[in-house]
Each structure stands twice: as C-alpha cells, then as structure tokens.
Amino acid sequence: MSALILPASSAYAHAELAWAIFIPKIERKIFIKEYAYIRVSSKDQNQSRQIDAMASRGIPQGCIFTEKQSGKDTNRPILQSLMNTVQEGDVIVVESISRFARNTKDLLSLVEKLTKKGVEFVSLKEHIDTTTPAGRFTLTVFGAISELEREHILQRQAEGIAAAKARGKHLGRPIKTPPSNFAKVVKDWEQGRIDFAEALRLTGLKRATFYNRRRELRESRKK
Question: Considering the domain 29-147 in this protein, what is its CATH number?
C-alpha cells in the first residue's frame, strides 16, 4: 500500500493547527504566577518573617505586594491592587490568614472573589491550599463555622431583646423627657403667641422630637 502524501501546503496547515492548539496551553502554564501578599499593621512592625517565607517559596520580588495598614477591613489599597492584578490560574500566597483577613467573614468573601476569577489561595501557616481537595475542604469548614457563629450571635441578640422587653426595659435610643414648660410652650405655639423656632428654643428639642412629644402629650390628655 502506498503511503498517503499530503501536499506541502496541507501538511503545513495541519502543523500550524496543531501548534495553535498546543501553544496556548504552554503559554497558560508559563504565565501562571504566584503572588505574595505581606501585611503589617504599622511601620514599626518587622516584615522579615513574611518576606523570608515568600522567598523560600521562590516568589520573585516583583510579585510581592507589601502593605502597612490595619487589617480591620478589606478596603486596603495594596490588597485591592493585588486582587485586580491576578488573573485566571494565578495563586495568591500569604504567610497566615491573619495577614490577609481579620475575620472569617472577610476571608471567605475575598476567597470567593478569587474563585470567581479562577485564582487560587494558599496560606502557609494554616496549610490551606485551594488547589487541593483538602484545602478546599478546610475553607468549607471555615464557612460552616462562620455561619454557625453568625446564627449563635443572632440567637443571643434575640434572646437578649426578649429578656429586656420582659423586664420592661426600653431598647434603642434613650427617650428625651420634655422640659417642665413643654405643655405651656405647645399651647402658646398652637395659639400663635410664639413661632415654631421660638418653641424649639424654649424647649431645647429638635423638630422631630418636639412633634413626637407633642403627639404623646395629646394622647395622654385623651386618656
């Protein structure tokens, strides 16, 4: 049987197609990067421990994002810059969760945003690595614990409110008691002897409070 010989142009086209399929996979592998996020709360704190941890992992200096700011929330300029920089397939590495997020809620929110971008997350101290099933499971446990804590807080709040109401305790802002001259001032204002601005000045009340106390005064007179 004679061998099938493709025309040169056809063979070239097949080779070009093969490379077109194969090369993007190579490029994606080559350009996947690990980025490090390092944070300290003040200028006086030492970053050496975190820097050494990232250097031992082989992360280049140009891929290390360093921030000197409190972690009280996720509204941090360097962190947000990193979140915007990473692309699908990249990995963000932190020395510990506390450097990345102050609480479980913030951690899960940040990781969720990364997941939507196809970015993985690694925390060295806690051995969390979302590229592995064990790492993803650990984050699932974090999420369950966070939800459980939230439900317990809401339950305690509801029980506290119910107990306070049962004791007849007022909840919310303290009620401002009207001054002793309030009834007279209201009467003078209603009869046009003083204007509203003068009524507020004499009672020391704000507009909304004045109207509320006036309504209560009228209701008390009906009883």
Answer: 3.40.50.1390
